[in-house]
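Final report, section 2: Outcomes. Of the targets proposed, Calcyclin-binding protein is the one most frequently requested by collaborating groups, and we therefore present its record in full.
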Amino acid sequence: MLPSKIDQLKSDVEELKRLESTASRPHVKDILSVEIRKLETEIIKLVDSSSQEAVSTSALNLSAKNNSAVKCYDVKVTNYAWDQSDKYVKLFVSLKDVQTLEKDQIGCTFASNSMELNARGLQNKNYIFTVKGLLHQIDPSSCYWKVKTDSVVIFLAKVKQGTKWSHLTSNEVKPKPDFSADDLDSNGDPSSGLMNMFKKMYEDGDDEMKRTIAKAWTESREKQKMDF
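The predicted structure is given below as tokens.
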């Protein structure tokens, strides 16, 4: 817009100068001369303004280019705590200054037995918090999250409301030992129960296990004969 106005003013100046050269009366020439100087002054101001605008635009473009060149790298989040109510399992994820992010920079995805939190562009880092293999199923459509000061609270909706979770994930549950009172015989004889357990191990084991048990059994029988 400025260049076209400058060109128009230059044309006006040229026209006034032509009139000034043809004017015969001194008073008319003085009026034309004053008007010419006014227009020339305005042209100088517009040229300066146009130059400053060009410099500002260039600086903004350079700043935008530098900002776009900043690369973020992924960081796995491990600092969290959890609690529960009858309806929800609540996860408390610590993220400093997370409240400064825009809404489109943070989000959660939910599945029936997992969830993932993404906080993008926080201090030039993309923070990722993932939980897989939840102890019980959740309802993804009823799950949600809230951004707090330096933290995010995630609400996992329980499918079975009122059920108390002993652990957050199934991987945290320790397997029970494969042994019970059934391994003893009906009269409670420990040696008989031990034999039943070895028999079960022999039947379920691989070739190496069977050879080991057979060898132990043979050595035990020979030792018993020697004792007699």
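The chain has a mean pLDDT of 80.
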